[in-house]
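Q: What would this chain look like folded?
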Amino acid sequence: MPRTNITLQEVGKNKGAELTDVNADQANGMMFDNDGRTELIIHNGDGSTRTVTGVSVACSHGRTLDVAVPVATLKRGILGPLDPDIFNQKSGTDIGKVYVDFSAGTTTAVKVHARRVTG
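A: My prediction, written as structure tokens:
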């Protein structure tokens, strides 16, 4: 199945906003639009530490620079901002998106939202 898209929530500079969380999709992975100013916020309501990984794209030499964020039980974590040159998909239908993977066991107890500050 294709990755689940996380709708980007924009927060204006010098403003506030209510942010809406979505359930993590561990089975399919997720993705979000990235311009280098985007962050993924993770809320772990699960009974164990869960790891969220920003999947990088391989450079011309095949190197990658994935970023793994362990988030303890009942804690929050952040992934990003991420460099578009290293993390954004470069081909196919997901150009400009960052792929995110979740450790086994994440279900509705792990929530995420992507946000970007504008203005």
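The two ends are 36 Å apart (CA to CA).
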